[in-house]
Design a protein that fits this description.
By secondary structure, the protein is α/β, with parallel strands linked by helices. It folds into 2 domains: about 325 residues, Adenylosuccinate Synthetase, subunit A, domain 3 (Adenylosuccinate Synthetase, Chain A, domain 3, Alpha-Beta Complex); about 110 residues, Adenylosuccinate Synthetase, subunit A, domain 2, CATH 1.10.300. The chain contains 13 helices and 20 strands. The protein is globular. The structure holds inosinic acid (IMP). The site of inosinic acid has 19 residues, from α4.
């Protein structure tokens, strides 16, 4: 099945030579990007991750088998495709090894994986630091001047500390360094000289301290370096070589636009550039090469962790959406916060990404509600505004203005065309398209590949 979204005359189709397409999340992550990437992977020669790390997670069902992927691009599940982890990703190599082992045990050929030599390594001390920082914030150290209200609620996968070290530079470790023991030792020594006192101050246990001894770290790095060595490459050159050879590339965004470190609801964000322009820095392929940018969004809103969410719901409606949509984190298992669709935020995300079309997911979850609402404006200090500000303090003060739509009672999970949708569901989709200013190229009505309406 070829996506209408990617097969029009202008783009020359998904199989057109040298094409670059992207799938990005338009909300706070968990929009259902995995299903879209999985469907599109078969139409591209390579699938490339450009941001984030093992904080992301998606499940893909191929031929009745469910795979849970956190770091490995889902292109790995298709024989003959390249799966590339770009330089913008922070790689926990031990998690990566586990993931690869699990895939091999299930008969997947993982030889198509390449990891950028410039991708930064998430080391055990990054995870310890992430956890200890979160514990500190959760204890409410703010009252003693520590910033407690800013509970980010991270995935504790070491993402923020690894990106922070990338910016610090001295003592940071990149994938290529795993293959240079002398340099690696120097880097780890430098890193621990700074980390050790900090981690002590944050309450590191003696067991954690033992685990982080240089010799332990060196042994672990040597082992993983040997195993991953053949996959570590200059992926920027590899990707450009593919493009010169006329191959088409699909870029797979992790997390979501509103979690972007620059354009999201800072500080309640992740550490990376989640948006389409992150592809340029995160892979070395200029974002100007992108001819299609598919923005994935749920028919409602969810968020995991702290931070403002103007259209958030509580009570029965929230409970029903959460249970019907199985809204529990794939990486952490945490129940997700739930709200009506926020069209003010959506317009912003479409703008920031230059999204050319929408993939609207989980529409089936809204079946059975008497009314369905969407936030169409905000109110700040009694004034109506219809634009989004990522300023978390300002956003926390906004009140949602909801527009109500009559619901539909029909189960739509077997619907395969727009025409067959109940009139009220169709009207809801059309309203979203109008508000976003781009068409819904895809409407998803269930987790299965076939549960998809194209065009
Ligand atoms: P971190 O990326 O682990 O540092 O977490 C920072 C924030 O981003 C937290 O609120 C997380 O819950 C959120 N987050 C990170 N990755 C994802 C994701 O893939 N889906 C949803 N939320 C995420």
């Amino acid at each position: 099945m070829e996506f209408a979204a990617f097969s029009d005359a202008e783009s020359g189709g998904a199989r057109a030579p040298g094409r670059c397409h992207a799938v990005v999340g338009l909300q706070w992550g968990d929009e259902g990007k995995g299903k879209l990437v999985d469907m599109l992977a078969s139409e591209h020669d390579a699938v490339v991750r450009y941001n984030g790390g093992a904080n992301a997670g998606h499940s893909v069902v191929v031929a009745g088998t469910r795979y849970s992927l956190h770091l490995v691009p889902s292109g790995i599940l298709y024989p003959g495709k390249a799966a590339v982890i770009g330089n913008g990703v922070v790689v926990d190599p031990w998690k990566l090894m586990d993931e690869l082992k699990g895939l091999r045990e299930r008969g997947v050929n993982t030889s198509g994986l390449m990891v950028s030599d410039r991708a930064h390594v998430v080391l055990p001390y990054h995870k310890v630091e992430d956890g200890l920082r979160e514990d500190l914030l959760n204890r409410g150290a703010a009252s003693e001047g520590g910033g407690g209200p800013e509970k980010i609620g991270t995935t504790r996968r070491g993402i923020g500390p690894a990106y922070a070290d990338k910016a610090h530079r001295a003592g940071a470790v990149r994938m290529g360094d795993l293959l240079r023991p002398e340099l690696l030792r120097e880097r780890l020594q430098l890193a621990m000289a700074v980390k050790s006192p900090m981690l002590h101050g944050l309450g590191m246990t003696s067991e954690q301290e033992r685990d982080l001894a240089i010799e332990n770290l060196m042994a672990q790095c040597r082992d993983v370096g040997q195993q991953l060595g053949p996959m570590i490459r200059d992926t920027t050159q590899e990707l450009h070589a593919m493009l010169r050879a006329g191959k088409s590339i699909l870029f797979e965004g992790a997390n979501g636009t509103l979690l972007d470190v620059d354009h999201g609801t800072y500080p309640y964000v992740t550490g990376s550039s989640t948006i389409s322009s992150g592809i340029g820095t995160g892979t070395g392929v200029p974002a100007s090469r992108l001819t299609r940018i598919l923005g994935v969004m749920k028919a409602y809103t969810t968020r995991v962790g702290g931070g403002p969410m103007p259209s958030e719901l509580s009570g029965e409606i929230a409970h029903n959406i959460r249970e019907r949509g199985r809204e529990y984190g794939t990486t952490t298992g945490r129940p997700r916060r739930v709200g009506w669709l926020d069209l003010v935020a959506l317009r912003y995300s479409v703008m920031i990404n230059g999204a050319t079309g929408l993939a609207l997911t989980m529409l089936d979850v809204l079946s059975g509600f008497k009314e369905v609402c969407a936030c169409t404006a905000y109110e700040i200090d009694g004034k109506r505004v219809d634009f989004f500000t990522p300023d978390a303090t300002e956003l926390a003060r906004t009140k949602p203005v909801f527009t109500s739509f009559p619901g539909w009672s029909e189960d739509i999970s077997n619907v395969r065309s727009r025409r067959e949708l109940p009139a009220n569901a169709r009207a809801y989709v059309e309203f979203i398209e109008k508000a976003a200013g781009v068409p819904a190229d895809v409407v998803s009505v269930g987790p299965g590949r076939e549960q998809t309406i194209l065009g």
